[in-house]
Amino acid sequence: MKRALITGVTGQDGMYLSELLHGKGYEVFGLVAGQNNPKAELLAKSHPYVRIVSGNLLDLVSLIRAVADSEPDEVYNLGAVSFVAYSWQNARLTSDVTGGGVLNILEAVRFYQDSSGKAVRFYQASSSEMFGKVQDVPQRESTLLWPRSPYGVAKVFGHYMTINYRESYGMHASSGVLFNHESPRRGPEFVTRKVSQAVARITLGLQDGIALGNLDAKRDWGFAGDYVEAMWLMLQQDEADDYVISTGETHSIRELLTIAFDEVGITDWEPLVTIDPRFMRPAEVDLLIGDSTKAREKLGWKPRVEFDELVRMMVRSDLELQAAAGSERSS
Ligand code: F7E
């Protein structure tokens, strides 16, 4: 039975990856930070097979212990401060966790490999945010990185550190440059879920409208369930490498709104949306569209869920959640 340790296990990707690995017969360990963390309690209920290990990406000693205790064959580093807008207000913390945390977990893995003699395969969750002010369209593995947020800068650090550990120590360390990936489990601070939740609440008469920032930004949005499969495939290759994971399609926030409102039969959505400068970013990433040819050819990976289907799935899920919360409120 293979063993995997996942950091960021309580997040959207951590949950999908746990399910995938559990389905493949892995023993899954999940790193959870903090004392009495409510997310750990929720995870224990929804994913009882995940063995929770206490540790924090900021605390190298805790990581050394977590890796030694879980004796992993594979380590997936998904933990990060991941909300781009928040990273300007918390630039130091974002740099430490999202950037420095990668160095800490790499060191913990290297220490474990050296002391136990067991080879460990490592996955780093890199991000399309690293492309920032894009230097190629579409973006691929060789595209020059030009991050536009403290989050993007921190991810670049982690990305190159992963490559450096591969080249310096021969570690099987791969970096997945994942473009935006969403699902009904996405946090409500991200734009897709913010929209799907608002559309559901507007439909049920719980909210009048939605305040957003830049409606013209374009993203390459895929389904998180498809993307965790790419993470696993990277670690099954003989050679570690870096891969762009994307759909190859780009859509604006306006298109997202059109589909989300269409799902509930609203075609004229403009009166329901206000532009609020609070949601504008100090520097925007205007256009992301990825070229995942390498992953398709070498990993045999391809996305299954289309953008239209993804948005509708999220709206339907939020309608159910909001309706269930409503009936609880009235009972
Ligand atoms: O923003 C625009 C916003 O916060 C998408 C993270 O998973 O993907 C994600 O980063 C776009 C931006 O995701 C609102 O300005 C407009 O252009 O959903 P988001 P993100 O910043 O692209 C990458 C790959 C990651 O690695 C990150 O961890 O939508 N936008 N109005 C808005 N965005 C938000 N959140 N809220 C708004 O009201």
The small-molecule ligands in this entry are: ligand F7E
Mean pLDDT: 98
Shape: globular
Question: In the CATH hierarchy, what is the superfamily of the largest domain?
Answer: NAD(P)-binding Rossmann-like Domain
**Biggest sheet, spatial arrangement of strands:** 3-2-1-4-5-6-11
The count of DSSP E runs of length 2 or more, i.e. the number of strands, is 13
Task: Estimate the strand proportion.
Answer: 15-25%
CATH architecture group name of the largest domain: 3-Layer(aba) Sandwich
Major sheet characteristics:
7 strands, parallel
- The CATH class of the largest domain, by name, is Alpha Beta
Supply the number of helical segments.
11
Share of helix, binned: 40-55%
What labels would you give this structure?
15% strand, 2 domains, Rossmann fold, 11 helices, globular, two-stranded parallel ribbon, 331 residues, 46% helix, UDP-galactose 4-epimerase, domain 1, alpha/beta, single chain, binds ligand F7E
